[in-house]
Each structure stands twice: as C-alpha cells, then as structure tokens.
C-alpha cells in the first residue's frame, strides 16, 4: 500500500510540474504575441497611412549620419557610403498605456517584429546601385516609440551610389555627387519627405584618400515627376562635393615630367660630335614621358582632359628638341660638303682663267657642269669677265636662300648656322615651356574654382 501511494504521489507531482511549465510557456507566448495589440487598436490597418488634416500628406522627417565614404570608383562612376538613416513620423492611431514606459523615460524601444505591424513609409535611394541594411546575426535596425505617439525608425545601411562624373579638369576635377531619396509608392499628396533639423551629418573622423569633402553639404527638398510611376513624388537630395587632392599628382606626374623636359634641354649643349649621346638622351626622355603617362591612373574617357594637355605639351617639347637635332645635323652635313669642295673647285677655275688657253671653262653651280665658250674681255683695270660667244656678261649667281655659314661683318668671325641654332634653342626652348606653364596653371585653377 505504501509503495502504491508513493507512486501515485510522484505521478501527481510530475503531472503538476508539467502543467505549470506549460502554463508559463503559454502565458509567455501569449504575452509576446500580444505585444503589438498593446499599442495598436483593434481596427488598425497597417496598409493605410496615418490620418492627417484634409488634403495634407503625412510628414516624414529624414536624417542621415554618414559613417564612411569609400571606394570612389572613377571607372564605374560610383561610390560607397556607410550610414545611419533615421525616419520620424506621427502615428496618431496608437493607444499607448503608461505602464510600458520605464520610470523617468518618455520612450520605449520596440522589437523589430512589433514594428512589422505598423504602417511604414517606403523611401528608397533613387540613384543607388545597391542599398542594403547591415546585418551580423540580425538586421541592425531599431524602433523607438515616444509618448507623443511619434515613431522613430533607425537602421545601419550601406549603399553604392551612381554618380555622373566629369573629368575635363582632371586631376583638379571636382565631382558633385547627389543622393536622391524618394517615396516609392506614396505620391506627394500622401507622404512628404522632409529633412530634419540635423539633416545630414558627417563623421568627424571621416577622411578620404584622394579627395577633400566639401562642407557644408547642400540639402534640397523637391517634388519630382516620375513617368514610370505616373505621378509626382516627394524627393530629398543631398549633394556630396568631392574635391580631388592635387598633391599626389604633383609628386607622381607633374614634377617628374617637368624634370624630364628640362633634361632634354641639355642636348643643346652637346656638340654634333656626340651624336650617340645626344640621340640617346632625347629618345630616352621621350620614352620616359610615354611610359609615365601611359602608366598613370587616368580615367578612360573619350574627351580631352587637363592632364592630356600637360602630357601633350611635355611630349611636344621633347619632340621639338629631337627635331631640332635633325635640322642642325642636316645643316652640318651641308656645311661640311661646302668646306670640302671649295678648295678643289676654286683653284681650278682661277688657273684656267689666268692661262686663257682653254676654249671652255667648267662652271660649277650647285653640282651641275655647264660648258660654254670663254673670251676675255677687258673691263676695268685688274678685272676680267667671262662671256659666252661674245654675248653680254652673265649675271652673278644668286646667293642660296639658306646660308649654312657666313662671316660677321663686325668681328670677322665665321658664323655656322647649326651652331647658332643650338645657341638660340638654349634660350627659346625654356622660355616657350615656361610660357606654357604660366598659361596652363592659372587657367586650370580658374576653371576648377
């Protein structure tokens, strides 16, 4: 009997414990599922927007805190931004008991599951390629409910925003990239987006690698017509101004290319007896510039950029120095040819003229030989002239349009054309390049400002 009684007691105790545990679990589940009904009236419909004055839309205050901006991609023309977004609106249909607030607080944080039963605005980033709410073990969102029936929604997001960039002034370009925020399904007669007092705030520790972020940011509220949705929709716009830093390009591009151009000027001090060294110097300078500009991080666009003009000016300067070398070399060849032939031709002509024994005289003009009769006709004392067949005197041969050498009438020193060109080039080439620099930088700075 005692064993039977003990068994029944144990069974009763175990059954009671199980029933009590099930009751507590059911109550907890009922409390959890009943939480939305604490603040929502029985006739609440989340698909219907909160009531407002007749003809006025629901005002949704919007604000953004920018945590980071990175990956400004000039090839894809977009940039990535990590941010916190905040939305705030008045939901007058809520029934809020005072016992859900902790003592001294005028707000309560709701679970995301509860917020799913609320009416929600539907803003989206109009020009975004990707926009996602950050997640780790769950989505980083929060919903705060205030005693005055204001609902505040916050979320951590990252988005890739498209930006139509212009690179005419590269590398001193300024990119103005807007972010458009617009209501997706509710037109401007039902929902109006508005910047809150805080607007858009930047992380004070935010630093960009190649850009300076212009401040203050320009904010705009407007209504945009969307033909895809056939209606006017409320739109918020924030403009980010990215000013490219010139320091990197000064060190990596402008300064080295200027030094290479100056290095090419040393060829004017090298004589033509150092032909291999002069050619090697100029060709090396040209190849260095080509390699420097082809390896630079230049946006692949079809139109001309400011850096392209600088590249063209530097390469044209080196190419002109190379062309100058070709010109002076040709002039030197002509000079050497005339120096080597005059001692051979002139004595022969003088000897034949003095003897008067030849019936013909070979007249060398520009390498051509002409045969003609020679007669000696007295003119003034100590002077003779050659006539052909008793005809009138032949006029003197015209001087060549390009004299490769001449004698200075003041000093009596022989001047050689190619040497004079080298001397003039030593001053002309630097002056022309400095004029190009003085025109290039002020115009570029004026346009970029």
- In total, the number of strands is 17
Instruction: State the end-to-end distance.
Output: 104 Å
Overall geometric form: rod-shaped
- Sheet/helix structural class: alpha+beta
Helical residue percent band: 25-40%
Strand content: 25-35%
- The average pLDDT score comes to 80
Describe the structure.
The protein is an alpha+beta fold and about 450 residues long. About 35% of the residues lie in helices and about 30% in strands. The chain has helices at about 1-40, 110-115, 245-265, 275-295, 305-355, 415-449, and strands spanning about 60-75, 80-90, 105-110, 125, 130-135, 140-145, 150-160, 175-185, 190-200, 210-225, 230-245, 360-365, 370-375, 375-380, 385, 405, 415. The strands form 5 sheets. Strands 1, 2, 3, 5, 6, 7 and 9 form a 7-stranded mixed beta sheet that branches. The chain has a 4-stranded antiparallel beta sheet with strand order 4-8-11-10, with no helix packed on it. A two-stranded antiparallel sheet has the order 12-13. The protein is rod-shaped, with a radius of gyration of 46 Å.
List keywords for this structure.
alpha+beta, 7-stranded mixed beta sheet, 4-stranded antiparallel beta sheet, 6 helices, 36% helix
Topology:
Layout: H1 2-39, E1 58-73, E2 78-90, E3 107-110, H2 112-115, E4 123-125, E5 128-133, E6 141-146, E7 150-162, E8 174-183, E9 191-202, E10 211-226, E11 231-244, H3 247-264, H4 275-294, H5 306-355, E12 360-365, E13 368-373, E14 375-378, E15 384-387, E16 405-407, E17 414-416, H6 417-448
Parallel strand pairs: 1-9
Antiparallel strand pairs: 1-2, 2-7, 3-6, 4-8, 5-7, 6-7, 8-11, 10-11, 12-13, 14-15, 16-17
